Amino acid sequence: MEWILLGAAVMLILLIIFIRKKVSFKFGLSPGTLEIRPIKGLKKLSDDLEKSLSNSYMENVEERVQRENKLKENEYKWRLLDLKRYFILTSLLKEAPMFSDKVDELWHQMLMFTREYDEFSKKFLGTTLHHSPNVKVEPDPDLRGFFDWIYAELFFIRKENIHLYQGFFRHPVHPEIIDDFKNLPENELIDLYFKRDSHYMNTVLALISSMKKTANKIKDHDKSVIHDKMRKCKSEQNFNKMIVPVLSVSYFHYDEFSSYMKISKKSTSTSSCTSCGSASSCGTSSCSNSCSSGGSSCSSCGGGGGD
Q1: Structural domain includes residue 81
Q2: Is 231 left (phi over 0), alpha (psi -120 to 50) or beta?
Q3: Reduced to 3 states, what is the DSSP secondary structure of residue 82?
Q4: Is 305 inside a domain boundary?
Q5: What's the predicted TM-score (pTM) here?
């Protein structure tokens, strides 16, 4: 009985220490820019996004958010930065789930200003960007792994981004997806993963070229083991040992990434990521469901924008 009580006390102390570390997280000054990577056309895409967001609209959003939420110093600007990054992803990807509760909260607040939001999304994408809730409690791990890879290809990653997304590369990039980028031509990759009607096709092509280079740096892996045990924690960790070093050398401020992950990896035993919603852009024509290979789920247009 005494050993049980002692063990419980130790666990409680460790839990308190961990919670304090999470609560004490401090947001540094935001960079003021989206810190994009040198992908062709990405600067223009970023500039077009900024031009689509009127100052009066964003001032009203910030006032509402600050009034209704108790945010830490500098937190709003980091949430906004990551929401802008997410909007960039929606302009390129066929399917773009939302994997951050805190960023999604800001998206919800933007939707409250219906007319301004509609004007923004049509000016940026030429159509309304709908917010569709994700009915799954747990995110598709293959979709999250792919999302993290795309995110790292486009943006520099700092500890604040890692905090908002509760870690990156907790789920491995599926080997079939890596093989696709190693072997398939551009047109097939666009059909599988990207928007064929994107206004920024030169950026899509440059992104594909960059991802092909990354995929070719990854050594051959034991596909039979990965396919059979993909959902098991041990297999995920072993597979990530191959891809994370390749990505982290170029993409992460590595000290920030490694030190944060040592703390945050204990937060859950399975998945620490949530997928509240996904974005879909609908014009006047009807939208059809589309599936990508490698375990990615189907995406379709949501019914409304005020979710």
Answers
A1: yes
A2: alpha
A3: helix
A4: no
A5: 0.71
